[in-house]
Specification:
By secondary structure, this protein is an alpha/beta fold. The chain is built from ten helices and eight strands.
């Protein structure tokens, strides 16, 4: 697919561009409204077409924990019959806790961790079925309260009796940016993994104590523009970090429900690197 079309969709999902204006621009790039309508399903997430993750070795439940102003909804997944687990908070993209991110949470659990997928849209009642509505609500979240709700999620994991007290996080897109923010704002965080997420403020980098793993798509010019300054600050402050830029792949390359942007090879490699970090940093505490 023409990269200009993919870039347009990226603009649409990460800005205030209305669906009406997006469709007009898509029709121009596609050559007609009819062709635009044909292309659209290839751009949008298709949860029904993607192979959902399932495993008999994990247990999954919906839980709540106390947020800043009410309860936060989340999905909790963990290996059956296991205790003293390393814990991972999973942070969704800018449309809420959708089926894809729930699958990611299950996949983390299947790797041997206690995984918590938090629904940032809990203050609005939870993630809506309409992704455009979810994107709208994300923009209406109070940034400080939202940050505190995630920090409380990390504390919830630390206090779980089936956890070992060690906690990391992994986020995607909007959630990748939040993973960087959590690294800045939680000095007890052991590891933070950001997939194509906005970088933390350079001035805040000295606060980071966690090990960072940063995944970027080589074609993601919007997000990648912030890499040089961020990496220099990480070097200057001697932060433990790794940056990987996957050539020829787009923003959201890990999302297997997005057929035009998903890249299987890059997704598998980034995932293995992510799990390897968590296994190193979130191992059972020696007693």
């Amino acid at each position: 697919m023409d990269q200009k079309i993919i870039n347009l969709y990226d603009e649409y999902t990460h800005s205030q561009l209305s669906r009406k204006d997006f469709m007009k621009k898509l029709a121009v790039l596609a050559g007609s409204t009819a062709l635009a309508m044909t292309i659209l399903p290839m751009l949008e997430n298709n949860y029904a077409a993607a192979a959902g993750f399932d495993s008999d070795d994990i247990e999954v439940e919906n839980i709540t924990y106390q947020g800043v102003e009410g309860e936060m909804k989340a999905v909790l997944a963990k290996p059956k019959g296991k205790k003293k687990l390393g814990c991972v908070l999973v942070i969704h993209e800018n449309r809420g806790l959708n089926p894809h991110i729930i699958d990611v949470t299950k996949r983390v659990a299947a790797e041997g961790f206690l995984a918590l997928g938090v629904d940032a849209l809990s203050p609005f009642g939870g993630t809506p079925a309409d992704e455009d509505k979810g994107r709208e609500w994300i923009g209406k979240l109070d940034p400080e309260k939202n940050l505190q709700n995630y920090l409380k999620g990390l504390d919830y994991l630390r206090n779980r009796k089936d956890g070992n007290g060690k906690v990391g996080c992994v986020g995607f897109c909007w959630g990748g940016g939040m993973a960087n923010k959590l690294a800045v704002n939680d000095p007890k965080l052991q590891a933070a993994v950001a997939y194509y997420g906005a970088q933390a403020n350079v001035a805040d980098v000295p606060k980071i104590k966690a090990s960072l793993l940063l995944h970027y798509g080589g074609l993601d010019e919007r997000i990648n523009a912030g890499i040089p300054a961020y990496e220099q600050a990480l070097k200057d402050n001697k932060i433990d970090y790794k940056i990987y830029i996957y050539d020829g792949v787009n923003h959201a390359f890990n999302n297997d429900t997005s057929p035009t942007r998903y890249n299987e090879a890059a997704a598998k490699l980034a995932w293995q690197r992510t799990i390897d970090l968590f296994k190193r940093k979130l191992a059972i505490l020696t007693r």
